[in-house]
Amino acid sequence: MIDHARARPDAEFVALEGMEGFFRADSGNLDLALTIDKILNELSEVKPEWCMLVEVKYFLGLTDEEAAEALGIKLRSMQRMWRDARRWLFEHAEASRARQSAGR
Fold first, then answer.
1. 74-102 pLDDT, tens per residue?
2. Cβ–Cβ under 8 Å, residues 62 and 55
3. I want to staple 50 with a disulfide (CB 3.0 to 4.6 A). Which of 23, 58, 85, 103 is the partner?
4. Which bin fits 72, alpha (ψ -120 to 50), beta or left (φ > 0)?
């Protein structure tokens, strides 16, 4: 999948230099990044294929067609899986947000 992403001529690469201060320890962005990481870890335990799909769609920016091809599944199956994965992520993100709000 990485080779596929690297072969995309329209892919946009971002240099990491100068980003040291991007996530400050007191930043709300850090909380969001940690929440996303936790939720993706949970997803990978219960539905690893959904987690892989989220990674290729969100982090690699693949189109539906590219994601289906990279994962070796039919387009419609991938689209149904993407819908279900997004619903699962939303529900777990909301539950995590509610737990954080209750703990404050």
1. 999 999 999 999 999 999 988 887 887 77
2. no
3. 85
4. left
